[in-house]
Amino acid sequence: MHSLLRVLTLGCAGLALAALAGGCAAPRDRLPEARYTLTERQVLPLAERLTITYEGAEDSRCPDNVRCIWPGRLVYRFTMRIGSVAQSFYLVQGQPGYMSPALRGSRIELDHLTPPPPRGMAGAAPASYPVTFNMYAQ
C-alpha cells in the first residue's frame, strides 16, 4: 500500500509539472501541424512566450574534393525559449526528432522531402544552411 501511495504521488507531481509546461493542453491549445523553413538566426514565434530560433548548422560532412574515412553529418542547432527560459536542441537527418512538454504534445522533425544542401569544396567559405522542419501533433 505504501508503494502504491508513492507511485500515485509521483504521478500527480509529474502531471502538475507537465501542466505547468503546457504538456496537458487541450486539443484546441495544441500547436498547429505545419512545415517551416528558416534561415540562420531566424526566430519563429509558435505561441505566446514560446519561440524557436534556428541558430545555424554544424557540417562535418566530407567536402566534394576530399577523400574521407568518415562521411560526417549535418547538425542543425536550435534554441527554444519559453519566456526567459532557453533550451537548446539539435536535429539530424535520419535521427528522431525533438519533443518537449512546452510544445504541447507536438514533435519537431527535419523534413525528409527536403534534401540537405551540398557540402561544397574544402577551403571554401562556410555556407549558410537554411533548414526545413515539420511540426507534428502527437
Salient structural properties:
138 residues; mainly beta; Tick-borne Encephalitis virus Glycoprotein, domain 1; 4-stranded antiparallel beta sheet; 8 strands; 14% helix; disordered N terminus
Description:
With 138 residues, the chain is mainly β. It has one domain: Sandwich (Tick-borne Encephalitis virus Glycoprotein, domain 1), CATH 2.60.98. The protein has one helix at residues 2-21; strands spanning 34-38, 43-47, 50-59, 74-82, 85-92, 98-99, 106-110, 131-137. The chain has a 4-stranded antiparallel β-sheet, with no helix packed on it. The protein has a 4-stranded antiparallel β-sheet with strand order 2-3-4-5, with no helix packed on it. Residues 1-27 have low confidence and may be disordered.
Shape: elongated
The biggest beta sheet reads: 4 strands, antiparallel
Number of helices: 1
Strand order of the largest sheet: 1-8-7-6
- How many domains? The number is 1
Order of helices and strands: HEEEEEEEE
CATH class: Mainly Beta
Number of strands: 8
- Percent of residues in β-strands: 35-45%
CATH topology: Tick-borne Encephalitis virus Glycoprotein, domain 1
Assign the structural class, choosing from mainly alpha, mainly beta, alpha/beta, alpha+beta, or little secondary structure: mainly beta
Q: Mind telling me which CATH architecture this is?
A: Sandwich
Look at the structure and give the mean pLDDT.
Answer: 79
